[in-house]
């Protein structure tokens, strides 16, 4: 049996995104006539099933998709910046992204209306969300993709930043600047991403032959009994009299609190302690000093989420995908050469 040709096959042949290929085949705006002809010719050569022959659910991709966010993180800069790029990518393709705040509990009666909306063609869950709600959304028989999170035991597509790799980049930058006593601040139970950053940090120390100092490892429960995140409790946990020369923080808000707490104690950043965060929020550049951070590739994640949705609509029965996108390190003034 010959292999079924998909949009992804055509996109790889031409070096275009699957969204661009689909636009060209469907006659949508935003594609040059030269590119459109090239796509159509390639589709014919590869014997791609014409758009007219595709199932109705695959053709109807100009509807709405729902971007579901937990109510506890809806106002966070990371959440809203990610939503901005999702909205941009899908709008360029011709789809509308609807932002929906998830309820504070797993009440099925509150989730049920989300399942009945006939105009919604797919659901996206962003960040730290409920496995039970994901299970409920799965009953809608529509594509479901989790962004910036995953459930290890579920058969659900996900798109994430490569947190483990990002921690290696952070430690490498410290090592290149002569640091050997490096600490970590995070919350291993907050999310799979935070835990992956911790594992990457520990493995990176081992890779470069550095000792892991338990006294510099701060695994703090930042979530209170109501599910709210309180990064400010960090300053109560720090031993200001016994510090490493560098800290890798599991996200930028932790790094911001750390920076302010150290400065308040008269500790110079980065001369005495260097700091790296994760997410590269816009406010990193306005810190004093500007914060070095791992860049969360929001635009690429949005595009890959769109591509994955298009693929899933053509391949509803295929196993789930977990797509990891590598971050890059944005170097600013919060890291300096370690003093001997």
Automatic annotation (TrEMBL):
Keywords: DNA-binding, Repressor, Transcription, Transcription regulation. Residues 5-49 form the HTH lacI-type domain. Signal peptide: none annotated. The keyword DNA-binding applies. Gene3D superfamilies: 3.40.50.2300, lambda repressor-like DNA-binding domains. GO terms for molecular function: DNA-binding transcription factor activity; transcription cis-regulatory region binding. It comes from the Bacteria. It comes from Paenibacillus nasutitermitis. The lineage of its organism: Bacteria, Bacillati, Bacillota, Bacilli, Bacillales. The keyword Repressor applies. This is LacI family transcriptional regulator.
């Amino acid at each position: 049996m010959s292999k079924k040709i998909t949009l992804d096959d055509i996109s790889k042949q031409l070096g275009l995104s699957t969204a661009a290929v689909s636009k060209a085949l469907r006659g949508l705006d935003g594609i040059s006539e030269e590119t459109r002809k090239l796509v159509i010719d390639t589709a014919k050569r590869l014997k791609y099933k014409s758009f007219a022959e595709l199932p109705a659910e695959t053709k109807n991709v100009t509807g709405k998709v729902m971007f579901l966010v937990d109510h506890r993180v809806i106002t966070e800069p990371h959440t809203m910046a990610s939503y901005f790029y999702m909205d941009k990518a899908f709008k360029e393709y011709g789809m509308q992204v609807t932002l929906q705040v998830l309820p504070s509990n797993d009440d099925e009666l509150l989730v049920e209306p989300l399942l009945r909306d006939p105009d919604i063609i797919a659901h996206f869950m962003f960040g730290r969300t409920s496995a039970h709600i994901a299970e409920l959304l799965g009953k809608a028989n529509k594509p479901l993709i989790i962004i910036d999170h995953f459930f290890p035991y579920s058969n659900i597509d996900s798109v994430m930043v490569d947190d483990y790799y990002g921690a290696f980049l952070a430690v490498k930058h410290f090592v290149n600047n002569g640091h050997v006593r490096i600490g970590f601040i995070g919350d291993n139970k907050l999310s799979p991403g935070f835990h992956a950053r911790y594992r990457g940090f520990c493995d990176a120390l081992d890779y470069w032959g550095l000792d892991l100092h338990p006294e510099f490892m701060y695994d703090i429960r930042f979530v209170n009994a109501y599910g709210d995140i309180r990064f400010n409790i960090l300053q109560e946990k720090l031993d200001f009299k016994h510090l490493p020369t560098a800290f890798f923080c599991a996200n930028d808000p932790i790094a911001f609190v750390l920076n302010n707490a150290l400065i308040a104690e008269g500790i110079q950043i980065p001369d005495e302690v260097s700091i790296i965060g994760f997410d590269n929020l816009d406010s990193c550049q306005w810190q004093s000093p500007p914060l070095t951070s791992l860049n969360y590739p929001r635009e690429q994640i949005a595009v890959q989420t769109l591509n994955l949705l298009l693929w899933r609509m053509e391949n509803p029965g295929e196993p789930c995908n977990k797509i990891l996108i590598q971050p890059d390190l944005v170097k600013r003034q919060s890291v300096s050469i370690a003093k001997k």
